[in-house]
TrEMBL record:
<comment type="similarity">
    <text>Belongs to the NADH dehydrogenase family.</text>
</comment>
<protein>
    <submittedName>
        <fullName>NAD(P)/FAD-dependent oxidoreductase</fullName>
    </submittedName>
</protein>
<keyword id="KW-0520">NAD</keyword>
<keyword id="KW-0285">Flavoprotein</keyword>
<dbReference type="GO" id="GO:0003954">
    <property type="term" value="F:NADH dehydrogenase activity"/>
</dbReference>
<dbReference type="InterPro" id="IPR023753">
    <property type="entry name" value="FAD/NAD-binding_dom"/>
</dbReference>
<dbReference type="InterPro" id="IPR036188">
    <property type="entry name" value="FAD/NAD-bd_sf"/>
</dbReference>
<feature type="domain" description="FAD/NAD(P)-binding">
    <location>
        <begin position="4"/>
        <end position="315"/>
    </location>
</feature>
<keyword id="KW-0560">Oxidoreductase</keyword>
<keyword id="KW-0274">FAD</keyword>
<dbReference type="InterPro" id="IPR045024">
    <property type="entry name" value="NDH-2"/>
</dbReference>
<dbReference type="Pfam" id="PF07992">
    <property type="entry name" value="Pyr_redox_2"/>
</dbReference>
Amino acid sequence: MSKRIVVIGAGFAGMWSALGSARLLDEVGRTDVEIVLVAPEPELHVRPRLYEKNPGGMRAPLQEIFQAVGVRFIQGLVERIDVVSQKVELVGLGGDTSRRKLGYDRLVLAAGSRLFRPQIPGLEQHSFNVDQVADAAALDAHLASLARRPESVARNTVVIAGAGFTGIETAAEMPARLREVFGKDAAVNVIMVERNSDVGPDLGPGPRPVITEALTELGVTWKLGSGVAAVDANGVTLENGQRIETDTVIWTAGARASALTSQIPAQRDNFGRLHVDRNLKVKGIDTVYATGDVAYASTDEEGNHAAMSCQHAMKLGRIAGHNVAADLLGATPIPYSQPKYVTCLDLGSWGAVYTEGWDRQVKLVGAEAKALKTQINTEWIYPPSADRAEALAWADPHYVVVA
């Protein structure tokens, strides 16, 4: 009797989970396990690049890869997970909008994360973000439309709410993007607003001098110690009462795991991520694995946990895919471990900063780090070709990127 693995999500973790399962099944010559991936579209949205211009082009097709390795793709949106009956309920997209239930023997939840939007007056109506392709495309169109507005300080001012990783990368891109719209000699004003007392509060003190130097040279400024209290059509009001007139507010402050995690009766962290064991099985649920941004997973024995990043999602996906198939086959799982941690922060035309370790020791800066960031963004994080052998080789849980 055949078995079925259902993967929810086609992001970095979901894609690699499906390929990781296919690899192990191919390796042992088993054809009696079906792999089904459910997602709104058969494409990988390259979210780490959505702060760049032309975000509509940040998509990588997956259908041919899935067909090459024997993964069945269903275009749909999962609305309900029933861990007791081992079924997911989904609504079809595209040509088939019917509702259906899909049974599984093992489930891999790889539904990713979404930008967290708190209940700030006017935030939903009057701000932009770079969380999803459609969101970033809306910002792109808005920036282009500013050229048709009368010149004013507000038109030429962009406020970035949040000075974390995404906020810094977005802010660093903005001066050049605005001058493409207004002209190379235009006076532009890019301001980051951060409730914490430092730029890059989660990045620590290691790379901060490089970041502040780069932002200063790019002309980006920041206001610290007070978050956004309200947003309206003409600007933002800060919690300290200060007012900034602007036509463009970009919200970048924080992410939360997919709401589907709330349907799994298991422990979650403050970001909604499911607690998993070292094999990425949800603790207390024998038939469900969680991976990528929905997994609260230990990376090492030092107390560190995976971040919501493609760096961790790619490895998490490969391991989850291998282990969920191994679970059905009675094969040996591979405990998830990712002790090496790096960051490469894009700093626009100034360059970038590359660090190693959870304490973020700076190793490369400027043009040298920018070259590495470009390679990461344009090569390393993209899916393999539709060649079956290559796709399965890249899905090896021990796969290591070689420059």
